[in-house]
Amino acid sequence: MEPQLLAAFDAAVAAAGYDCRSEAVRDLARRWLADRATGAGRSPAVGVLSFVYDHGQHDLSHRLTHLQHEHHTEVVTSLHVHLDRSTCLEVIILRGRAGRLRQIADRLIALKSVQQGGLALLAEPRTGKEALAR
Ligand code: NI
Predict the structure, then answer these.
(1) How many whole angstroms from 73 Cα to the centroid of ligand 1?
(2) Is residue 129 in some structural domain?
(3) pLDDT at position 127 over 80
(4) Which of 54, 66, 88, 129 is the most buried (most CB within 10 A)?
């Protein structure tokens, strides 16, 4: 972990009233695992994936575009905002089986230089064959 990130994390851990960093890390791990359990599997879902990245980093923009083309069946649309000279916000709407959307989000967020990524999963309001045929 970068020293700056660790210092900011330690400050937030102290401000939140934790006695030590490891207890905060345990809580984070529990929450992350609980989040991942939600919306897993084959149920139809709509996903809102948002993340911030530095577009000047390596070939990240091309890799992000490539990954979205690779998953064109699930990617419905995307929104790109230039936050400042180097930072971009990308919001991608996904539709498909929840576990599949989670996998796609994991792959995008795991790319180096992608920061602050998150996936919000919503249950697909439609039911039956129509929804699962996608
Ligand atoms: Ni941009």
Answers:
(1) 24
(2) no
(3) no
(4) 88
Domain holding 18, by residue range, is 3-40
Same domain, 53 and 17: no
CA of 122 to the centre of ligand 1 (A): 27
* Alpha carbon of 45 to ligand 1 centroid (Å): 28
Domain identity same for 28 and 50: no
Host H or E run for residue 114: strand 114-123
pLDDT for res 126: 63
Please tell me the distance between residue 81's alpha carbon and the centre of ligand 1 in angstroms: 6
Give 59 Cα–ligand 1 centroid separation in angstroms: 13
The per-residue pLDDT for 56 is: 80
In this structure, the answer to whether residues 52 and 80 fall within a common structural domain is yes
Strand order in the sheet with 75-82: 75-82, 87-97, 44-54, 114-123
| Structure confidence by residue, pLDDT tens digits, 57-101 | 768 888 889 999 999 999 999 999 999 998 999 999 999 999 999
Regarding whether 49 and 19 lie in a shared domain, the answer is: no
Question: Is 54 in the same domain as 34?
Answer: no
Global pTM exceeds 0.90 = no
> Distance (Å, rounded) from C-alpha 56 to C-alpha 113?
10
